[in-house]
Amino acid sequence: MKLGLILTNDWELFGDGSGDYFEIQHKPLYSLLDCVESHGAKLTVMAEIGQQWGHRSLGEDQPWARDVAENWDQAMRDVIRRQSDVQLHIHIQWLDSVFESEWKLRTNNISIADLSEDRIGCILRFGKTYLDNLLQPVDPEYECIAFRAGAFALQPSRVVVEKLIEAGFLCDTSVTKGLYNENLYDFRSAYSSCIPWEADPEDICTSTSRSSLFEFPIYSYGAVDSAAIRRAFGDWTYYRFTLGAAPSDTDRRWFEEKRRISYERYPKTRHLELLNDNPLRNIKKNRRIPLRWLASKIIGRRPVMLDYDGLHPELFVRCLEKAFSHPHVALYQNTDTVIPIVALGHIKNMHDTGNLSRILELAKARLGDNLTFLKLRDAVRYWKALTAQQTTSQTAKA
Ligand SMILES: [Zn+2]
C-alpha cells in the first residue's frame, strides 16, 4: 500500500473580487507547475469559474477583461498540455456581480446550497461544459468530473449532491473532517479524514454503498488542540509539543515573508466579515459567550488540514505519516492499493514555491516508495474501479 498525494490548488482571485489576475493567479501558476514537475508530481487546479464568467461577460466591451479571460483559458489549456489536471471550483458570490471601477460581488451569497434547485443544476452543468469544451480539444480524454464548493459551503447537501450526479460529476472534494464554521459548514460527522467514500444522497458527510458520487476529503489530522495555549506560545511552539515538528530558520523566514506579502495583496480590512466565526463579535447582541465555544478554545480537537501553504515541511510530512496508522488506511496494509490523499493550497496565498518545494523533497525522502503522486481525475477513476471490484467480490462471496 502506498499514499497517492493529490496536490489540489484553489485557483482564484480574493473572495471579494480584488487582486491582480496576472500577479496573483496567472504568473504564479506557471511557477507552481515548474515546481511540481521538477519533483515528478502532478497539480490539480481547482479552477474558480465564477470570475471567468464575470470577466467573459465584462470583456464584451472592456478589452482588459477580455484579456484576463483569454489568458485564463490559455493557462488552463497549458495545465492540461503539461499533463496536470483542471477541475471545477465555484464561488457563487460572482453570480450577478457588477464592475464599477472594481468588482462588486454579492458577498452575502456564499453557499451554493442557498441557490434555487434549478440554478444549482444550471451552474454545475455550465461549469462542467465550459471546462470540457475548453480542454477536450487539448486532450480528448479530458473530462471535468470533480467539484469543490467555494468556501467549502454546500450544506445542506441533498440538492447539491443530486445536481452534481445529474450533471455527470463523480466526485466532490469540499469536505474536511472536523472542520466547522457556524455560518458555512459542519464537517464534524464526516465519515473519514483521509479515504474517499460514496456520498449519501441525503448527506455528503455520510458513507453509503448506493451512490455514484464519491467524496474525496481534504486530508486532515485531528490533533489535540488548545487555542488558548497556541495564542500564548504561538502555533509553531505548540506543534513542536504536539507533533514534534519544529520549523527551521528557512521556514520561519518563508512564513514571515508570506504574511508580509499577503497583507500587501489583501489588506486586513478587506477580509470578509462573514468568514469570521468569532462569537466574541456578537457578545453585545447575545450578552453571553457560548460556554462550549469557550471550552473548545481551552482544549479541544482541531483538524490540521494538509495545506501546503499553511504547514511547514516537517509538519506537513508528520501529518502525512499519520495517515498510515489511520484505521481506514490500515485496512489496506499488505495490498498494492494506492490510497488517494488530497492536499490543498491557494495560489493567491503563495508568494513563491519555496515551501512546497521543500515539502515535496522531504516527503519523497521520508516516504520513499510508499509515496506516489496522482491527478484528481485519475484518482477518482481508480477509486471508483477499486470500489466496484470490492463490491463484486463481496457479492460473489455472499
Ligand atoms: Zn475558493
Q: How is this structure best described in words?
A:
- This protein is of the alpha/beta class and 398 residues long.
- The chain has a single domain (2-221, 303-392), classed as Glycoside hydrolase/deacetylase (TIM Barrel, Alpha-Beta Barrel), CATH 3.20.20.370.
- The chain has 14 helices and 16 strands.
- The protein has helices at residues 21-38, 50-58, 63-81, 117-135, 158-167, 227-233, 235-243, 249-265, 283-286, 291-298, 313-322, 327-330, 354-367, 376-397, and strands at residues 2-11, 43-48, 85-90, 98-99, 103-104, 146-149, 171-172, 180-181, 185-186, 197-200, 203-207, 214-215, 220-225, 300-305, 338-346, 371-373.
- Helix 2 (50-58) packs across helix 3 (63-81), helix 4 (117-135) runs parallel beside helix 5 and helix 11 packs across helix 13 (354-367).
- The longest helix is centred in the C-terminal third of the chain and has 22 residues, at 376-397.
- Mean pLDDT is 90; it is low at 272-287.
- Bound molecules: zinc ion (ZN).
